[in-house]
Amino acid sequence: DKTSFILSARRTYLDVLARPLIKANQRIQQDNGNADPGNSTDGGYFFYDLNAKVNHKISDKHRLYLSHYMGDDKAYLQSTSSFNNATESGTEEFNSELKWGNIISALRWNHMVTNKIFMNTTLRYSKYDFLIGADNTAANTTNGVTTNDGFSFAYTSGIEDWSGKIDFDYMLNPNHLIKCGVGYIYHTFTPGVN
């Protein structure tokens, strides 16, 4: 009768379920002569999240609450191609991704100072991240001479917050409630970085 908790997690499996269909389609295209046997493509989308909360009764006048959420979404594409003839051969790989995610955590201490005064002290953290990126690498061999090329690109954006607050509820009488408190928040904005 002092501690309770809840924990939940989930993930979509659209990317895992679609992978055999993508591979089967590639084989059909190759068998029909519509695609080069050296080419392959993989891609997908998924998200996951995790929720957790713990409540603990320290005593009749003190309670502690901890909560946490985190989740990510990701879409990705990967492709490989290769060729080979009498004088020239080469391979090329391309990867791209789009992802975003959140983290939110809070720790709260509830203290009953008297029968009419309640105090809450809360510490919080939150973060949001966004990324879109791609990279490409290629290797070509002509008459025994190999050249390598590559490029990559990434754009990120995010917000991160740390905060704390103390607030009081004073129940003057059944018809009147006085609320007061103080809080502080530290924001870090990263509007866009290439």
Can you walk through the features of this model?
The chain is mainly beta. 9% of the residues lie in helices and 77% in strands. Strands 1-2-3-4-5-6-7 form a seven-stranded antiparallel beta sheet. It is elongated. The mean pLDDT is 91.
Layout of SSEs?
Blueprint: E1 3-11, H1 14-31, E2 40-59, E3 62-84, E4 88-112, E5 117-142, E6 145-173, E7 176-193
Antiparallel strand pairs: 1-2, 2-3, 3-4, 4-5, 5-6, 6-7
Descriptors for this entry?
194 residues; mainly beta; seven-stranded antiparallel beta sheet; 1 helix
Average predicted local confidence, pLDDT? 91
Query: Count the strands?
Result: 7
First-residue to last-residue Cα separation: 52 Å
Strands of the widest sheet, in order across it, are: 1-2-3-4-5-6-7
Question: What portion of residues is helical?
Answer: under 10%
In short:
The protein has 194 residues and is mainly beta. The protein has one helix at residues 14-31, and strands at residues 3-11, 40-59, 62-84, 88-112, 117-142, 145-173, 176-193. It is built from one helix and seven strands.
